[in-house]
Design a protein that fits this description.
By secondary structure, the chain is of the alpha+beta class. 39% of the residues lie in helices and 15% in strands. The chain has one domain. It is globular, with a radius of gyration of 22 Å. It starts with a helix and ends with a helix.
C-alpha cells in the first residue's frame, strides 16, 4: 500500500511545469524574433521553429568558411549584414546574386576549381539569428548570430553587394570584387589544409 502512493502523487506534478514550459517558453521568443524580421525589416519568414528567413526576395546569401569571410569583410559596406553560424559565415548580398555567382566565378577564372563557396538564392532558407539588443539569456550554442546586424528602420538592401554597384545608384560594394576576394581566401584555406594533411598522417 505504501509503495503505490508515490507514483500516484509523483506522476501529475512534473507534467504541469513541462506543459507550461512548452506553451509559454519557446513561443514567446520565436514570435518576438519573427515580429522583428517581418515588421521592423520587412523580411519574409517561413512557418516553423526555429525562425527561418526566406531568401531570394530581399537578399541572397553567400555561405563561406568563417575564416575566409573575415578576410573579406573589408569588401563590404559597414552596414552590410553578416551572420555567423558555427564555422560558417553568411554574407547577405543583393537578390539575384546567387544566379550570377557561377558566371562571375567563371569570368574570374575560378570556375574550374572546387571552392567551398555556396550561394543561397530564390527558394532557399536561412536560420534567423536573434535580433540585436538586450537578451534575457545568452545565445544557444551553434545558433546563428549577427556579426553585423541589419538596422531596423533603414533600407538594409541598399548596403548589399550588387553587380550594378559601379556607376549605379546607391553606394553598395561591388559583388565581383567581393566574390574574387572570397574565392581567393577559400582557395588559400583549401591549400593550407591540403598541406597539413601529410603532416597529420606521418
Amino acid at each position: 500500500m505504501v509503495g503505490s502512493v508515490p507514483p500516484v502523487t509523483a506522476v501529475p506534478l512534473p507534467r504541469r511545469p513541462l506543459d507550461t514550459a512548452r506553451s509559454a517558453g519557446p513561443a514567446e521568443p520565436a514570435d518576438a524574433v519573427r515580429d522583428w524580421y517581418e515588421n521592423e525589416l520587412g523580411w519574409a519568414t517561413v512557418p516553423g521553429a526555429p525562425v527561418r528567413l526566406s531568401v531570394g526576395e530581399r537578399f541572397d546569401v553567400l555561405d563561406v568558411p568563417a575564416e575566409a569571410g573575415h578576410a573579406a569583410l573589408g569588401r563590404l559596406a559597414p552596414k552590410s549584414p553578416v551572420a555567423v553560424r558555427g564555422a560558417r559565415m553568411r554574407l547577405l548580398v543583393a537578390a539575384g546574386s546567387a544566379e550570377e555567382l557561377p558566371g562571375i566565378l567563371q569570368w574570374l577564372e575560378w570556375g574550374a576549381l572546387p571552392l567551398d563557396l555556396r550561394a543561397i538564392g530564390t527558394g532557399g532558407l536561412m536560420e534567423a539569428p536573434l535580433p540585436p539588443g538586450p537578451r534575457r539569456a545568452g545565445p544557444v550554442q551553434g545558433a546563428a548570430v549577427w556579426l553585423r546586424p541589419p538596422e531596423a528602420g533603414c533600407e538594409a538592401e541598399a548596403s548589399l553587394p550588387t553587380m550594378s554597384a559601379l556607376g549605379g545608384a546607391g553606394r553598395a560594394p561591388d559583388l565581383v570584387r567581393l566574390v574574387d576576394t572570397l574565392a581567393t581566401q577559400v582557395h588559400r584555406l583549401r591549400l593550407r589544409r591540403g598541406c597539413a594533411q601529410p603532416l597529420a598522417a606521418s
